[in-house]
Amino acid sequence: MTPHEHDDGLRSEGLQRYHALNRSFGAPFVLHLSRRGFFSEVNVAIDAITRGLVDRRRLIITQHRFNDLRWCDAFASNLPDADAAEIELVPPDCQAHRAKSESFLALLNWTKEQSRSGTQLRIEELGLGGDLFEVKRSIYSLFCRPNATVATEVRQQMEANGLHDKQFSAVHIRRGDKIAVQYRRGRPWSEGEDTSAAHCADMVHRWAPGMRDVFVLTDDYRAVQDFRAAAPGFRVVTLCPPHATGHDQSTFNAGRPEEKWATIRRLLVEANIASRSQFFAGGFKSNIPKFIASVHFDPSRCVSTDSKITPWPY
Known about the structure:
- This protein is of the alpha/beta class.
- It has helices at residues 3-24, 38-55, 84-88, 102-117, 132-143, 148-160, 197-207, 221-230, 249-253, 257-274, 287-295, and strands spanning 26-32, 57-62, 95-96, 121-123, 128-130, 169-173, 182-184, 187-189, 213-218, 235-238, 279-282, 302-304.
- The chain folds into two domains: 3-143, no CATH class; 148-304, Rossmann fold.
């Protein structure tokens, strides 16, 4: 048995133990995945799994509105589910339907409080322990390993772009609706921060001196061009198509299922490549860098490019 097969066997066993444990709990609550950003929903699902284990409550996750996808389309795992008759028995106040529902906000606030308090958590049956970040990293490793299709494309892209046999840095530069300015109560507001490519290049220089290969994740090809201009000594690799000018979630939601899956698959491949980098820089106000830090082989090598210093709390 190879080390990889051994790891897969342990992960499969861990998933089986999780599902058996989850089914043994009472007081069920339901998380309905939505058409919000893919990685936003992934991160929320992991939050819900964590809370269910800590509070010893059965979790049910529905996927019928999950960007026309099933979890297993992306990952080598399945989420805890139930049939419609069981879900109907769960009280409405124990079901989180959308970002502004009370149940969803309760989950968000629980995550923030656990993170801020630094409480040491322990799930004896699964051998999990540590603070919230440590426990969630273990849960990410169970539920977010790429499936065979995605893993094959990760390997192919790394080989095709000369990243499979060398150390490299990775940076994430978010554009599109994440940095678009809106007005709330007459004041300008944006969900993310417009971090310059030059700032990202400076961080690579500072944190990974001498590392000349850089993988750039972005939704806007102009950011790749800006990064190359700011760091002419780097060999820059990207999977961003030259025509990309920034992600817009409403436009994405209106697309055909095959178009949405192609976009999500590319993001999954990019995130998994970045998780293998020797150094990663990305804005932790964005869900993709949060995900990368959670699955990275060494999260201490992941640094924020915006004012949110750590990926936790959400």
